[in-house]
């Protein structure tokens, strides 16, 4: 499997061999991998070489080190296509996960200048500010802060707590049309890391979505913090 005559560096060959095992499902997520020594013996390479391969796989999110325990195969990332305009509830259900939310807060606030501009309302107009932790099979995936103009729709706290915002909007007779979304890399701050159950400074994805109804009216502005270790966004491109 490892070709010592190849110009490919040995650590890279080991990395590829491990990735293949994970991708083929031979090594399942959560299982512990062999020690550096065992790898070094099996591949007849130095422990330094093995360490380099494993470090790269940890950095790329394939493997996770747990202090005092060992190195484990990471949970598979959720792949989300940036194509259809879907809700968290729909995304999770379509992948066979059980969606849920923890409602952190639900209140009305007065729009500041930016909110007013984005939501096409006048400054100081009331907007709902909804903070939710979004979970898949009880694992926290993202923290979402959603702003919706109060004048547009009467939102029920109970429904938001239990169910889907988009279904509540659609059940009220609105048709959601399109959204613009930005995505940028960042690191988890202390409060975020506690909620998302990741270490402080771990990579996260910051997403901002502005969603519009078929009437042309803005429905929501949403700021989200997604776990970088569990999420992968896919974009199809055509030339
Ligand atoms: C997604 C959307 C968010 C929307 C929510 C509705 C992203 C980045 N954000 O999380 O804008 O408010 O779905 O979900 O995808 P719900 O209908 O399950 O409440």
UniProtKB/TrEMBL annotation:
The keyword Transcription applies. It holds the Pfam family UTRA. The keyword Transcription applies. Signal peptide: none annotated. Residues 8-76 form the HTH gntR-type domain. SMART domains: HTH_GNTR, UTRA. Keywords: DNA-binding, Transcription, Transcription regulation. It comes from the Bacteria. This is GntR family transcriptional regulator.
